[in-house]
């Protein structure tokens, strides 16, 4: 056997060396190698096979030596393979795949042949691939962890009952917006928030004026501002929040604004409701207190003067004075009850406008009629001034009169003797076609109103001083009614006042200008009868209250009418049925009566088979509301008067109905 084994080009290229080891009892092992093998072993000069064996053993990586020896032992029995590290004297550590097999053709000793391949490059590539795979795995794990973290923090933030929002500055790129913040801004998603953030931020209002100043100063990292704001989402939809804003640098290095919002809308609504309830209950108790006084005053007068009249019965002049006082007290009671009803009605939201054509100049007559006596008593000077280009307008006459009367009666009440009251109505320029704008100014030189009280001026039952404190009687309802009526007419009211100097109320209301035709029609409808007698008119009066019945019968009899009384609706119906057609000229019907009320009785009468079904019926009731009047007309009645009976009004209604 030659010392060197021939190699071919191929084996050289794939860096495979061939070897043979021979082991014989009592001799050193011999290691034969081809040219490539020697090169792979790092042997550069001629050496003996025994030296080669020793050389190779020296170069096996010490950490792999144990594994290599095990492998060598196995080789004597079976074909086997190993990959181990070999320390090449020139190029350093290399990976070697070694495969060997026993050559059984040799009889003396043991001979093993095999290959030795340098697989360093393959291992390197494999290792690189493995490293890449690990890296990818690691990245994936990191990404999953980051995702888990993000979800966790998002859930955590979304669970918060306060809103959290972060966006970059400049750029307004939304970094985060939790569920509550989206809800507070009215966004469905973060994407929508991103699209509309600019507009949304412009709809945030800061009630405290210095907040914007502080927010603008938020330049440096870690600066923080606490403030209140209102996030507007639409006309009525707004969210009140307590907010904290801070500027931070986020991991990407950008500057961002982080804001947390605590939604306090419910709290504010509750606080308002509580305040209103407290104020309402305070106003009601002071009202009850005032009422018990105010009701007692006229009642005392009525009882007192009635007793005096009894005592002085027959002394005509003395009792005439008492009668006058009785009348005044009665009128005051009526006003009081009227005002309370009015306010109750207004507060229930049922008030509507009933507009007719009217000449605003008539207001002057109303004033004279109602105010003259009080003005004279207090020696006040009333200066009136009317500058009207379009006095004929469409308006709710009663409400206009009531507004003016309330303001003027206040001016009279709260101006001491010798003072002056200016009353002016003027027309202001107005751009609305067919309409005119009217300004009413009531100005006095009276006691004035304090700055603290002005915000409460239009509250129901509110007075600056009680009747007992000021000695001036009132219920604190007048201005409440005025304000509500002005609002109903889409007008405005302004007050200016100085304690001890006087007060000026300015009311501005638009009215539609009445056409000439409309005006004439309405005026004709209001014509009053010249004669206040009801000669030979036969009236059936249905009234269950005997006191009211007596008053009505006496007043009507005084006007020369014949009156027959029915104590309820049922009786009225049977009396009418029993009488011949045309016997009664008219029925005056109370509404609330036992057995059969006025509406039912009217319905039954309207169902009668002959001419009696057409008998005129006038409702006479203490229900003073517009809808009661409507209901009376709807149930088939022809007219309507309210109690207490004003005889002129009753007679004029009867005459109008009998004429038609
Ligand atoms: P009433 O229900 O009988 O009108 P009132 O006059 O007390 O009672 P308002 O007309 O609502 O009630 O006025 C409320 C309060 O405003 C008054 O009690 C008074 O303190 C103050 N006030 C109103 N007008 C004047 C005025 N011209 N000068 C001074 N104080 C006024
Ligand atoms: Mg008043």
From TrEMBL:
Primary location: membrane
SMART domains assigned to the protein according to its UniProt record, in alphabetical order: HATPase_c, HisKA, REC
GO cellular component, one term: plasma membrane
Reactions catalysed according to its record: ATP + protein L-histidine = ADP + protein N-phospho-L-histidine
Localisation per UniProt entry: Membrane
Ranges in a coiled coil: 125-159
EC code: 2.7.13.3
Function field: May play the central regulatory role in sporulation. It may be an element of the effector pathway responsible for the activation of sporulation genes in response to nutritional stress. Spo0A may act in concert with spo0H (a sigma factor) to control the expression of some genes that are critical to the sporulation process.
Transmembrane residue ranges: none
Record's protein name: Stage 0 sporulation protein A homolog
Natural source organism: Anaerobutyricum hallii
Keyword annotations: Coiled coil, Kinase, Phosphoprotein, Transferase, Two-component regulatory system
CDD domains referenced in this protein's UniProt entry, alphabetically: HATPase_EvgS-ArcB-TorS-like, HisKA, REC_hyHK_CKI1_RcsC-like
InterPro entries, A to Z: CheY-like_superfamily, HATPase_C_sf, HATPase_dom, His_kinase_dom, HisK_dim/P_dom, HisK_dim/P_sf, PAS-like_dom_sf, Sig_transdc_His_kin-like_C
Keyword Kinase attached: yes
Sites bearing 4-aspartylphosphate, chain numbering: 590
């Amino acid at each position: 056997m030659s010392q060197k084994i021939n190699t071919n080009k191929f084996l050289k290229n794939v860096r495979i060396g061939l070897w043979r080891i021979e082991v014989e009892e009592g001799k050193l092992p011999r290691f034969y190698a081809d040219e490539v093998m020697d090169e792979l072993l790092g042997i550069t000069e001629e050496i003996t096979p025994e030296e080669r064996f020793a050389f190779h053993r020296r170069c096996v990586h010490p950490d792999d030596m144990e594994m290599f020896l095990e492998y060598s032992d196995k080789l004597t029995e079976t074909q086997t393979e190993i990959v181990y590290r070999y320390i090449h004297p020139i190029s350093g550590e290399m990976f070697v795949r070694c495969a060997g097999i026993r050559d059984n053709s040799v009889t003396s000793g043991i001979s093993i042949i095999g290959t030795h391949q340098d697989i360093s490059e393959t291992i390197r590539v494999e290792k690189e691939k493995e490293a890449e795979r690990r890296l990818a795995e690691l990245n994936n794990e990191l990404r999953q962890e980051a995702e888990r973290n993000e979800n966790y923090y998002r859930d955590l933030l979304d669970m918060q009952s306060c809103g959290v929002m972060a966006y970059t500055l400049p750029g307004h790129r939304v970094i985060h917006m939790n569920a509550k913040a989206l809800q507070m801004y009215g966004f469905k998603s973060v994407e929508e928030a991103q699209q509309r953030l600019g507009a949304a931020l412009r709809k945030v209002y800061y009630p405290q004026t210095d907040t914007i100043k502080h927010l603008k100063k938020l330049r440096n990292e870690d600066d923080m501002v606490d403030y209140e704001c209102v996030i507007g989402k639409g006309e009525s939809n707004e969210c009140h929040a307590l907010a904290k804003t801070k500027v931070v640098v986020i991991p990407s290095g950008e500057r961002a604004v982080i804001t947390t919002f605590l939604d306090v809308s419910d709290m504010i609504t509750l606080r308002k409701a509580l305040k209103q309830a407290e104020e309402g209950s305070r106003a009601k108790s002071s009202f009850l207190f005032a009422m018990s006084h105010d009701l007692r005053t006229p009642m005392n007068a009525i009882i007192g003067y009635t007793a005096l009249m009894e005592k002085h019965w027959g002394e005509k002049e003395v009792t005439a004075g008492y009668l006058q006082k009785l009348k005044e007290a009665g009128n005051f009671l009526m006003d009081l009850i009227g005002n309370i009803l009015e306010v109750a009605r207004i507060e229930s939201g049922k008030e509507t406008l009933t507009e007719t054509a009217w000449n605003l100049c008539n207001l002057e007559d109303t004033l004279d009629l109602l105010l003259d006596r009080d003005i004279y008593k207090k020696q006040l000077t009333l200066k009136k001034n009317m500058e009207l280009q379009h006095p004929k307008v469409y308006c709710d006459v009663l409400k206009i009169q009531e507004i003016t009367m309330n303001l003027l009666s206040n001016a009279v009440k709260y101006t001491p003797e010798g003072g002056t009251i200016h009353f002016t109505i003027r027309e202001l320029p107005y751009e609305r076609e067919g309409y005119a704008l009217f300004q009413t100014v009531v100005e006095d030189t009276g006691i004035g109103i304090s700055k603290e009280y002005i915000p409460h001026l239009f509250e129901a039952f509110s007075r600056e001083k009680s009747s007992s404190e000021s000695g001036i009687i009132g219920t604190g309802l007048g201005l409440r009614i005025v304000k509500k009526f002005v609002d109903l007419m889409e007008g405005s009211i302004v007050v200016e006042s100085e304690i001890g100097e006087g007060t000026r109320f300015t009311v501005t209301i638009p009215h539609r200008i009445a056409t000439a035709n409309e005006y004439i029609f309405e005026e004709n409808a209001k014509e009053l009868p010249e004669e206040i007698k009801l000669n030979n008119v036969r009236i059936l009066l249905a009234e269950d209250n005997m006191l009211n019945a007596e008053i009505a019968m006496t007043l009507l009899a005084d006007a020369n009418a014949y009156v027959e009384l029915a104590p309820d609706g049922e009786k009225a119906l049977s009396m009418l049925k029993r009488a011949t057609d045309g016997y009664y000229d008219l029925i005056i019907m109370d509404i609330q009566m036992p057995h059969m009320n006025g509406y039912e009785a009217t319905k039954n009468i309207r169902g009668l088979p002959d001419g009696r079904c057409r008998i005129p019926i006038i409702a006479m009731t203490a229900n003073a509301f517009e809808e009661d009047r409507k209901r009376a007309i709807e149930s088939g009645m022809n007219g309507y008067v309210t109690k207490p009976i004003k005889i002129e009004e009753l007679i004029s209604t009867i005459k109008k109905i009998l004429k038609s």
